[in-house]
Amino acid sequence: MSAQAKRALWLRPEEYLMMERQAEYRSEYFDGDTFAMAGASRRHNVIVSNIVRILGNQLLDRRCNVYASDMRVKIEKIRKYTYPDVVVACDDERFEDDMRDSLLNPIVIFEVLSDSTEAYDQGEKFTHYQAIDSLVEYILVSQSPYSVEQFVKQNTRIWTYYKFDQENDVLPLQAIHCEIILEDMYKKVLQKNRTHVPPKRATPKLQTKR
């Protein structure tokens, strides 16, 4: 594509937001370009639902909120808008404007991996997320049980890596004082194909009186 064509498609952030808020399908934005988001698999949706439910219950009476993939996050330093699979924000949540649909200060972000996004989520996207000052924990979840990777920020430049791969492993989320057992994170992910067999009705026995 020529430079002129790129310039013709370049969008300002406010133009992207106006279009995105009216669009039927979501798109991410990075420095003038937009990227359509693909649909999610059943496994992906089940894992996201499990994480939101588990954390939502633990944070029910605290000043934290758990958002699924419809909450847009703005990375101010690099002019990017993205949709994490799960995001947690606490205390004084900050949003870009009064629409309150572009979060600025997430604390924890989860991304559920797929074949098409795994390399991006582990590499470039994580690099982009590191530009968010408030972010403390970044978690990558494989769709195949059981595999979870966690990155915890120790200071502005160092992130510590942890790996969890057993169903009874506990993922600690110290930034929000929560924890998730991997077995619970993957509940109902493995759906076995079962043939429905109708229950057998007992045939009453004929009794002869003497």
Descriptive report:
The longest helix has 17 residues, at 42-58. This protein is of the alpha+beta class and 210 residues long. A six-stranded mixed sheet has the order 3-6-8-9-10-11, covered by helices on one side. A hairpin with a 2-residue loop joins strand 1 (27-30) and strand 2. The chain is globular. The chain is built from six helices and 13 strands. It has helices at residues 3-9, 13-20, 42-58, 118-122, 124-129, 182-185; strands at residues 27-30, 33-36, 64-67, 72-75, 80-82, 86-90, 102-103, 108-112, 137-141, 148-153, 159-164, 170-173, 178-181.
Assigned CATH class of the domain at 40-185: Alpha Beta
N→C terminal distance: 97 Å
Strand order of the largest sheet: 3-6-8-9-10-11
CATH topology of the domain at 40-185: tt1808, chain A
Total strands: the figure is 13
Low-confidence spans: 1-8, 193-197, 199-210
Largest sheet: 6 strands, mixed
| Backbone CA Rg | 22 Å
Secondary structure category: alpha+beta
Number of helices: 6
Strand content: 25-35%
One letter per element, helices H and strands E, the order comes to HHEEHEEEEEEHHEEEEEH
From the coordinates shown, what is the CATH architecture of the domain at 40-185?
Alpha-Beta Complex
Mean pLDDT: 87
Helix content: 10-25%
Find the CATH superfamily of the domain at 40-185.
Answer: tt1808, chain A
- Give the overall silhouette: globular
